[in-house]
Backbone:
């Protein structure tokens, strides 16, 4: 798979989902991509990822790990929504919709596991524990007795969510041909549809979080949005390299 242009991926997400113009956000993405080229968009990263994913055990472990990661993400988003100030119910609603998507995705990864690795050596106990761990959509706002987030805290969290969704979408693009290669002829069309749905969801998550960052930027926080986004973008790169070195790449 050829290298991925992060700026183009983000621009496409905004366009496909009819987002309002986000000039400040797009400038920040372009700066981040230029200053800190992401390893997960590199051609060699894709080749290494696909090579590892050809190992059935690695692929099964990856799908299970990502089911758990999506479940954790749903819970964290629920807590985040509970920390959003009461005058930003629009933001809380968007975060909760995202949390429900994550809860749905957790189950989708287990469905993919069953489809491409029906003979995966998972004990009945482990399967039961994983199923019990997964939250059920729709997700509700977590009750929190801690103070509401400041604007700076919201911008920081939204930046991390946005960057994480960009990386997740690229990883799914890389993994798609491997999953299809593992699929039976009967399962291939269904798996293609499932992956396409996941990719559309990730695009939508990139778009709505980009719009939120743009809105904060337009409200006088442009310098802070730009700064924290660059910091988090760089740290995501560092985390990706650590995961690659440990062969623990997430979707």
Residues:
């Amino acid at each position: 798979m050829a290298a991925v242009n992060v700026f183009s991926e983000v621009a496409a997400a905004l366009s496909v989902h009819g987002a309002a113009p986000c000039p400040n956000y797009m400038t920040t993405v372009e700066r981040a991509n230029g200053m800190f080229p992401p390893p997960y968009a590199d051609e060699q990263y894709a080749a290494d990822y696909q090579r590892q994913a050809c190992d059935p055990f690695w692929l099964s472990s990856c799908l299970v790990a990502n089911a758990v990661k999506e479940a954790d993400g749903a819970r964290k988003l629920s807590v985040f929504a509970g920390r959003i100030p009461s005058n930003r119910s629009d933001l809380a609603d968007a975060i909760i919709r995202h949390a429900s998507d994550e809860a749905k995705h957790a189950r989708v990864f287990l469905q993919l596991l069953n489809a491409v690795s029906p003979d995966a050596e998972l004990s009945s106990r482990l399967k039961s524990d994983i199923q019990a761990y997964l939250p059920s959509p729709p997700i509700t706002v977590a009750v929190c007795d801690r103070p509401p987030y400041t604007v700076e805290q919201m911008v920081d969290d939204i930046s991390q969510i946005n960057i994480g969704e960009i990386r997740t979408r690229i990883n799914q693009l890389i993994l798609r041909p491997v999953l299809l290669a593992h699929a039976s002829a009967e399962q291939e069309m269904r798996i293609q549809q499932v992956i396409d749905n996941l990719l559309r969801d990730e695009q939508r998550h990139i778009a709505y979080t980009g719009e939120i960052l743009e809105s904060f930027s337009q409200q006088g926080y442009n310098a802070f949005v730009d700064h924290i986004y660059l910091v988090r973008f760089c740290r995501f790169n560092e985390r990706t390299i650590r995961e690659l070195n440990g062969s623990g790449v997430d979707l």
